[in-house]
Amino acid sequence: MIRLDAITRSFRDGAARFDVLRGVSLEVEDGEFLAIVGASGSGKSTLLNVMGGLDRAYGGKVSVDGRDLGTLTDDALARYRNEQVGFVFQSFNLVPPLTALQNVLLPSYFARNEEAAVARGRALEALDRVGLGSKGHRLPAQLSGGERQRVALARALFRRPRLLLADEPTGSLDPETAQGVVALLRELNERDGLTLVVVTHEARVSAAARRIVRLRDGLLQDAGNG
To answer: Residue 187 domain-assigned?
Structure first.
């Protein structure tokens, strides 16, 4: 599904240059659950952003289903992000004044010719999928940390994407709550066939994956199966 060929990415801080990714090559198969691990600051999030089309300032080639993301127009890349990829982040990124249901509906605001009733039905379905079907009316402040992350996950699933990219999805959660989120991610992969790439430094998260790779010194190393 995803193929990365010799990906490089550098950042500058004044006159200093930092080479975060130094020729990363990786293939992610359709339906795989892959964990990318490594020390803090090793470039894990940068690599995920490249995969998801959030970062275009890289060298090398990113292909999804044989299509080179680097050749896409800005509009085509935006459609790729909105229709084919779901994103989940450590900080949840929910909009505080909106209810859980309204937060899940946010991707529909960027769609053309989307009927409100159809979008609402899909949002309710996504909330049901993560076990929050009865809490769509609540604001983020009225939900626990684990529930807020589940809302974020429901929003990522709203478009029924083939690929889910999760950046430290349990980093803000207590161990028990985090375990519930990990179990849900694994269920989405095993039951629904969702391709899942998770960036994490937590062993309990990477242990749920089928394959683990480690980012070290800007390169990936195979770390075995989950």
So the answer is: yes
